[in-house]
Design a protein that fits this description.
Rossmann fold; 22% helix; 12 strands; binds cytidine-5'-triphosphate; 8-stranded mixed sheet; globular; two-stranded antiparallel ribbon
Length: 217
Amino acid sequence: MASGSLHVLVTAGPTREHLDPVRYLSNESSGRMGFEIARAAVEAGHRATLIAGPVHLETPPGVERVDVVSALDMLAALEEHFPRADAIYMAAAVGDFRPRERLDGKWKKKEEGGAPAVLELVENPDLLRTITRDKGDRKVIAFALETADGERRAAAKLVRKNADWIVLNGASALNAPESSVTVFDADGALWSAEGCPKRETAARLIQLIGPHGPTPS
Ligand code: CTP
């Protein structure tokens, strides 16, 4: 690794919470923001490990990729990789709930006998909060997707998730090539990017963890 370069861990995409072998709960996340951050990290001379939920995106050059499906899979991958990282960008849209049980066989509608079907959900752990209990001096960048009262909620999430910065997105960022973001630290808003290509925003976000590039030879 070039001197001054860091090991950057990035999560991206949705999670899938299966209720049987063929059905799952998920969300609209495309994974683009996280993939662009991993690309930007490598372009800035860092080493990048990308923990990706199920997405249809090519791995950016030079990025080490770990594929996961569910929130619990993502937690296991984070527990393995976070201790070796210097910074984490938690861009994944982690499912907040999973079905209480995953059936081995297909859920058959005739078993419900015409009654309304009930799907019991249990809460997934907060992955960021879990891994940042042993954060040390690692830099933590959380993301917040809010549809209302964004600034106040993002500030509360920054504290709750033990993050150094939080990137506030609106729902229009989901599955789109561009996004409008505002970045906050504990003292308030630092900068905003309105309708910017995710690649440009990613390059700016990588600068949060320190200015440097590959050492000139
Ligand atoms: N996150 C996480 N574990 C979860 C849910 C979210 O680590 N179970 C992370 C996301 O990757 C993101 C940040 O926490 O970096 C905020 O995610 P968001 O979905 O906006 O918030 P939630 O914690 O789910 O809170 P709420 O549902 O109240 O908005």
